[in-house]
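subagent[fold] <- orchestrator: predict structure for attached chain, return tokens only, no commentary.
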Amino acid sequence: QVYLVESGGGLVQAGGSTRLICQTFVHKYSPACMAWFRQAPGKEREGVAVIYTGDGSTYYADSVKGRFTISQDKAKNTVGLQMNSLKPEDTAMYYCAADFIVPSGTNYWDASSYDYWGQGTQVTVSS
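subagent[fold] -> orchestrator:
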């Protein structure tokens, strides 16, 4: 069982930065794969960044590559998302997701690959 609590975000000006934190509460074993998804009003939830907690491999959606960085702090049981050069189109509810099984292939972009989700944190980028 894993509980995820997101923090950070808020209102940011275009071109600015913010950092999201996902605090993980685990019973025994840590998740093998963690990700950040986002969902804007009227749009489907989309994967933004993924990290494999074992070897630290990271993956990014093309829309955020070079601007966002996902990282983990194993000592604190947190996964962070540093968001730079923000654009109005980055406005969305951001969700932390986790699973104990590493998705096959590129299924890490599929929301159904994750059994555990946080409640979400809003990021609004003003132009």
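orchestrator: received. Logging for downstream: The mean pLDDT is 96. The radius of gyration is 14 Å.
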